[in-house]
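hiii so um. not sure if this is the right channel but i have a protein structure encoded as tokens and i wanna go backwards to a sequence. like what aa goes where. can anyone help
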């Protein structure tokens, strides 16, 4: 008679990508949250949503809702008259928080926490940051050239269009 012991596999979200998502979210909220109390409230709720989505529920939908709340923080900040450069940093941080948070949940679901994924996660984070910086640089360049009294929210909408373009390539 032989006894077989099962192996317990933990499919929790990745701590590395989840932590990087939270850092990106904090940067986004930090660059936009000071513009108004309402923006700060949405940003804080968004950070909580990302933290719960990654570390408690392991659910991509909750991460998306949290990122959307941070996006609302950026939008409100733009409406309140935040500087275009800070709006751009906030938008890039929001995109990174969404992407890295969802990556954390995906890595956790596909591999166990015992799997060595650090290198791949850092490569993903750096690649996403580089793409965000390049798209943001182009967006700021377009804004700077066409500044003729354009409102600051126009920059946010331009970066949102770039986000949708990146998302369309990803799916």
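sure thing!! here u go:
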């Amino acid at each position: 008679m032989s006894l077989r012991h099962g192996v317990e596999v933990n499919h929790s979200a990745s701590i590395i990508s989840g932590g990087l998502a939270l850092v990106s979210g904090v940067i986004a909220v930090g660059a936009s949250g000071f513009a108004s109390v309402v923006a700060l409230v949405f940003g804080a709720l968004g950070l909580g949503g990302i933290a719960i989505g990654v570390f408690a529920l392991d659910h991509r939908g909750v991460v998306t809702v949290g990122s959307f709340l941070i996006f609302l923080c950026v939008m409100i900040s733009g409406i309140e008259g935040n500087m275009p450069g800070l709006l751009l940093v906030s938008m890039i941080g929001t995109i990174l928080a969404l992407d890295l948070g969802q990556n954390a949940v995906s890595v956790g679901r596909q591999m166990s926490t015992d799997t060595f994924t650090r290198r791949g996660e850092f490569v993903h984070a750096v690649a996403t940051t580089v793409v965000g910086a390049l798209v943001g640089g182009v967006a700021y360049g377009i804004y700077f050239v066409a500044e003729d009294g354009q409102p600051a929210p126009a920059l946010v909408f331009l970066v949102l269009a770039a986000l949708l373009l990146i998302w369309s390539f990803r799916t």
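oh and Residues 15-170 form one domain.
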